[in-house]
Amino acid sequence: MLKLHESQGSDLVSAGKRYSDHYEGSPAQQYLEHRGLGQQAVKFKFGYVSAPAIGHELYRGRLAIPYLRPAGRNRSVATIRFRCIADACVKAPDGTYLPPHRERHEGHGKYMGLPGHPPRLYNTSALLTSKSYIALNEGELDGAAVEGADVPAVGTPGVSSWRDHFDPAFAGFEVVFALGDGDDAGRRFAAKVCEALPNAKAVDLGDGYDAARFIHEFGTEQFRERLGL
Ligand SMILES: [Zn+2]
Question: How far is the CA of 77 from the centre of ligand 1 (A)?
Answer without folding.
Answer: 24
